[in-house]
């Protein structure tokens, strides 16, 4: 089953149609951990890079029937077709999982922002888009800082600090967690 959704992908800062296939997308869920089997691109052979893996995590913005910014749905997704691995280890998988958790954190921050009464009724799409861009800029910056401080998961003590920090922040935004399954998206 395939879905076509208006999506905002933070990696390219543009609205686009995203073809979603049930088996290629994982929606963030506290009970669903990613595994190496979820990384569709296996580069273990003949790969020369300082990086060992990459996560295709994005925020989908569902806009069907939306008249106000507060009606938008922000969903953290993991795209198997854009996730790759060149070297597998348990610690690296935990590091990549936290990138997905950071994406979920920013989806929750967006939900909280647009749930506020003064922001809910924004009907100026330009203003709405600028707010989203700002959050996604912050998301990108935090993802880079995370990689920089942990040296892509190599510095264990820093990785542990980030694990706790993001876990605590997700808990702080728990009321903005969205439970949705891929087959609920239309």
Topology, please?
Layout: E1 2-9, E2 14-21, E3 25-27, E4 41-42, E5 53-54, E6 57-62, E7 73-79, E8 84-85, H1 90-115, H2 117-120, H3 125-150, H4 156-172
Parallel strand pairs: 4-8
Antiparallel strand pairs: 1-2, 3-7, 5-8, 6-7
Helix pairs in contact: 1-3, 1-4
Description:
The protein has 186 residues and is an alpha+beta fold. The protein has one domain. It is 39% helix and 20% strand. The chain has four helices and eight strands. It has helices spanning 90-115, 117-120, 125-150, 156-172, and strands spanning 2-9, 14-21, 25-27, 41-42, 53-54, 57-62, 73-79, 84-85. The strands form three sheets. A three-stranded antiparallel sheet has the order 3-7-6, covered by helices on one side. It has a three-stranded mixed sheet with strand order 4-8-5, with no helix packed on it. β1 (2-9) and β2 (14-21) form a beta hairpin. It is globular and about 45 Å long.
Most strands sheet = 3 strands, antiparallel
Oligomer: single chain
Mean pLDDT over the residues: 81
Strand order, sheet with most strands: 3-7-6
**What fraction of residues sit in β-strands?**
15-25%
């Amino acid at each position: 089953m395939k879905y076509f959704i208006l999506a905002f992908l933070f990696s390219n800062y543009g609205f686009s149609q995203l073809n979603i296939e049930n088996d290629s997308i994982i929606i963030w869920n506290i009970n669903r951990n990613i595994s190496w089997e979820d990384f569709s691109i296996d580069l273990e052979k003949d790969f020369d890079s300082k990086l060992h893996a990459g996560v295709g995590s994005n925020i989908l913005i569902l806009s069907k029937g939306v008249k106000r910014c507060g009606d938008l749905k922000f969903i953290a997704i993991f795209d198997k077709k854009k996730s790759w691995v060149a070297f597998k280890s348990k610690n690296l998988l935990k590091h990549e999982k936290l990138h997905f958790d950071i994406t979920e954190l920013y989806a929750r921050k967006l939900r909280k922002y647009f749930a506020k009464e003064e922001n809910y009724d924004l009907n100026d799409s330009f203003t709405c888009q600028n707010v989203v861009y700002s959050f996604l800029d912050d998301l990108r910056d935090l993802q880079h800082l995370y990689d920089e401080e942990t040296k892509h998961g190599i510095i264990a003590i820093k990785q542990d600090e980030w694990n706790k920090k993001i876990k605590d922040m997700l808990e702080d935004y728990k009321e903005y967690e969205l439970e949705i399954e891929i087959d609920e998206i239309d």
